[in-house]
């Protein structure tokens, strides 16, 4: 049996391919929101030197998140696993909400923008922004956080009961595609009752198939889904996603399909060693990606408006907003995300000791655990998301130990 120390030494090196995908997903979101979304929200902020209208980054992060849920969720350790996920995502999110809310209130009157209320703040802190029309998003990019945390909770509830394994999986995966489409076009229309809209939007039913994609890709890597079945499922999800937007943004769907090919290649193929020379900057950008995602949009709009009032041109505003996202993303990662996660999972009150208990090895009947090279201990965001390789070094040690005992 491997000890935690030897498991840590023997595990495979981290694959750069996952970090590349995370970087592409998050930073295309940043550029898309600056160049395309900001003039939509605030017409005076445009135009920019170029426009990136393709919207696929957040969807990519949710797929990667779902894939690594399958990799990391463990029988006998789901409470600890869930606490690890929440401890990584929630503290940084709550701090970002408060900061964004405070800045937005401070500038709203002078800019002539919407003034967020205390109700908006509470709704965002409680992650219920999508459940009622009276609630407004402090930052619209935060929509991935409730969806992601809900998926973690569902995985933690289903996995110990064996509901994520067996012959029921294909039925479940296809239901994630078909059922939301039926609801969308039969009940959830513009004139639908508010409770129908709230239920559909609050549960993000138009996005749940993205988690099915992550699960399907993982099943394919475990030889539990054929390549033909996976290809059919991916095409179906892409068509469904385009249908949810009433086929008005097909280019974004096509771009997302291209990225899905990259995810499949990263999951089932060799690492992208050709990029190892860029490993240090890529891993640094990936390491702060969740923080960047949290602070880039609304705070970026505020900075862009301030620079516009100072006479700064399009290129200057674009570069300044990207630089701000990197700086604040790094700060929230180093000052909030990492220390909060470390404290909550290792130095928290003794009342949480049961959450920090070592998991039991996985039984052979449940199948092996993939121990191919994995990304660092970054939450998924999508949001790395995404929010998006939610794997810590301790979890990798446990994966290695479990694997050695079922082989």
UniProtKB/TrEMBL annotation:
What domain of life?
Answer: Bacteria
Q: What UniProt keywords apply to this chain's record, in alphabetical order?
A: Membrane, Transmembrane, Transmembrane helix
Q: Where is this region: Disordered?
A: 359-391
User: Can you give the residue ranges of the Acyltransferase domain?
Assistant: 17-333
Q: Give the GO molecular function terms.
A: acyltransferase activity, transferring groups other than amino-acyl groups
Composition bias of kind Low complexity appears in 364-375
List the InterPro entries. Acyl_transf_3_dom, Acyltransferase_3
Q: Name one Pfam family in it.
A: Acyl_transf_3
Q: Does the keyword Lipoprotein apply?
A: no
Instruction: Give the species.
Output: Actinokineospora cianjurensis
What this protein is called in its record is Peptidoglycan/LPS O-acetylase OafA/YrhL
Q: Which GO terms describe its cellular component?
A: membrane
Which biological process terms from the Gene Ontology are attached to this UniProt entry?
A: polysaccharide biosynthetic process
**TM ranges:** 20-38, 50-71, 92-115, 140-159, 171-187, 199-220, 227-247, 253-272, 284-308, 314-333
């Amino acid at each position: 049996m491997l000890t935690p120390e030897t498991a840590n030494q023997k595990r495979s090196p981290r694959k750069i391919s996952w970090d590349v995908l995370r970087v592409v997903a998050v930073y295309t979101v940043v550029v898309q929101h600056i160049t395309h979304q900001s003039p939509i929200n605030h017409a005076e902020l445009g135009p920019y030197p170029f426009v990136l209208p393709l919207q696929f980054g957040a969807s990519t992060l949710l797929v990667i998140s779902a894939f690594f849920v399958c990799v990391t969720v463990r029988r006998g350790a789901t409470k600890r696993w869930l606490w690890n996920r929440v401890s990584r995502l929630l503290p940084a999110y709550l701090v970002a909400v408060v900061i964004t809310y405070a800045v937005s209130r401070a500038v709203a009157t002078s800019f002539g923008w919407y003034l967020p209320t205390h109700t908006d703040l509470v709704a965002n802190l409680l992650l219920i922004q999508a459940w009622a029309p009276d609630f407004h998003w402090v930052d619209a990019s935060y929509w991935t956080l409730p969806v992601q945390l809900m998926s973690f909770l569902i995985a933690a509830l289903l996995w110990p009961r064996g509901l994520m394994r067996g012959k029921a999986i294909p039925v479940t995966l296809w239901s994630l595609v078909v059922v939301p489409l039926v609801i969308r076009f039969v009940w959830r229309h513009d004139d639908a009752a508010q409770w129908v809209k709230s239920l559909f939007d609050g549960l993000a039913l138009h996005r749940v198939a993205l988690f099915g994609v992550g699960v399907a890709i993982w099943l394919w890597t475990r030889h539990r889904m054929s390549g033909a079945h996976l290809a059919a499922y991916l095409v179906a999800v892409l068509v469904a996603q385009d249908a949810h937007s009433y086929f008005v943004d097909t280019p974004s769907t096509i771009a997302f399909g291209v990225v899905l090919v990259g995810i499949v290649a990263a999951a089932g193929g060799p690492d992208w060693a050709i990029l190892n020379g860029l490993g240090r900057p890529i891993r640094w950008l990936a390491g702060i990606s969740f923080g960047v995602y949290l602070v880039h949009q609304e705070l970026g709009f505020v900075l862009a408006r301030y620079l516009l009032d100072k006479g700064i041109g399009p290129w200057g505003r674009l570069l300044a907003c990207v630089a701000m996202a990197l700086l604040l993303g790094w700060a929230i990662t180093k000052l909030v995300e990492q220390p909060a996660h470390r404290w909550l999972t290792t130095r928290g009150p003794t009342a949480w000791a049961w959450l920090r208990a070592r998991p039991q090895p996985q039984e052979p009947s449940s199948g092996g655990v993939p121990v191919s090279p994995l990304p660092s201990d970054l939450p998924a965001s999508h949001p790395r998301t995404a929010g998006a390789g939610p794997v810590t070094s301790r979890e990798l040690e446990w994966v290695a130990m479990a694997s050695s005992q079922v082989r």
